[in-house]
Write the structure tokens for this entry.
Amino acid sequence: MQTVTEPLNATTYEAGTRPPVRIVHLGLGAFHRAHQAWYTQRAGDGWGIAAFTGRSPDAAEVLAAQDGLYTLVVRGPDGDSHEVITSVVAAHDGADLAALAALVAQAEVAVVTLTVTEAGYKLRPGNAELDVDDPQVAADIEALRAHYAKDFTVGHALGGKVRSATARLVVGLAARRAADGWPIAVVSCDNLPGNGAAAKASVLGFASAVDPLLAKWIVDNVSFVDSSIDRITPRTTDEDKLAVAEATGYADASPVVTEPFASWVLAGDFPGGRPAWESAGAVFVDDLEAFERRKLWLLNGAHSLMAYAGALRGHGTISAALADPVVSGWVEDFWDAAANHLTDPELDVPGYRAALRDRFANPRIAHYLSQIGMDGTLKLAARAVPVFLAERRAGRDGVAALRPIAAWMDRVTEQVSAGEHVQDPAGPRIAIAAGTDDQTPALLALVDQQLASELDVVAALKALRGTFKN
Ligand SMILES: NC(=O)c1ccc[n+]([C@@H]2O[C@H](COP(=O)([O-])OP(=O)(O)OC[C@H]3O[C@@H](n4cnc5c(N)ncnc54)[C@H](O)[C@@H]3O)[C@@H](O)[C@H]2O)c1
Ligand SMILES: O=P(O)(O)OC[C@@H](O)[C@@H](O)[C@H](O)[C@H](O)CO
């Protein structure tokens, strides 16, 4: 066991020459630090990251005090390995729009990456259009319009008034256009189908509400890259921090724990260049859709199924849920349904499933079902509904793909009855739907409006409900 003697920072740790900022990241969470920052460090070709938090300054304050340094704990079934990540060279409060605008305006900055959660894009169902009826979106548009004619390019006047991540990005892009207008790439790293197009829809929704010429400049100069991102990264616990201190001798206030597996598949242009992420294992393809479906359906779909069905059966983590043979049977059924529509041999679905079983079973990764279960209305629309629709188009009943939705209904109903908060952009509407006489169609409408009007689907869900605890 090591004796803790020092805090982790650039004085105590020899980080070498830090690279200049060439990437701006929005959403300074655990995943960015386990994934994009790790790939960028391994690429080793001189790209530094300036990262901004999403909703509160806390993560930036902690990381800035460590000069951006943190320990990445790679937690395999048999033990941990530790690596200090040095590619994040600056950490900022996401509300600091002056810093954001100044950085995005710089010619050397060629890439913006995003991990702002599915809910962070503020899109209407279908992910093709900004939800301008959302109160935060409406307030952000008002704030952007009020300041656009004044000092918009430097962002000073906006401060914390603009809260949506993509509205903030629009402030940065406006500053870049005003500076000289060099093209740039925006890479979404969130678990959304067509995440590049979703990011574009969200950014253009804000930009066009402010200035159609700005929107046109974005269309002409900003490349929205699709990416399928994968590395299971649970929230860091206090025990993790203690274990890092014991193992490394550094008192790191902000380590990140992740699994050994990592994957990043990207499709799109990088007009201003990019790190050689391929040298770190990233894969560049022309069309991402099949890879994205494989990941969103098999990994994330199974995650959501376990998050709700596992919680109903009294489990707390993915590894515990998977160890329950009833739950793992439902996961296999769901995978069989999804696999019917993932037929390209290049996808190697049997191998991918086998690897997922091992990854999910890793008992040393405590991935809490409560974290995965958040924002269920958005996640189920991307992870379960498309599998159900594909099964139905093929003439089958698709029950295995309705199970995650039925489990979500039972779980949120249980939470509402217990007076617990349901973390979801539709949270208040979930509470109302759970209180109606005919809950099932009311809840289903929050996931998919069209399906809620189909009597056979509602009947199939009703038949599944109440079956999870047996
Ligand atoms: N954790 C994983 O295993 C994993 C794997 C693949 C993809 N992802 C993607 O990354 C996202 C973030 O995961 P994480 O583990 O870093 O979570 P996290 O809670 O550690 O960090 C999330 C970051 O996004 C910000 N954020 C949260 N809600 C937001 C909102 N509505 N608008 C703007 N910013 C918001 C937070 O402030 C924080 O900076 C996920 O939602 C997912 O889309 C995560
Ligand atoms: O990150 P979310 O909230 O979109 O989804 C929760 C998990 O399913 C997800 O984080 C997976 O662990 C991840 O996608 C694995 O790469």
In short: The first strand starts at residue 6 and ends at 7. The radius of gyration is 22 Å. The chain has 21 helices and 13 strands. Residues 13 and 189 are 29 Å apart (CA to CA).
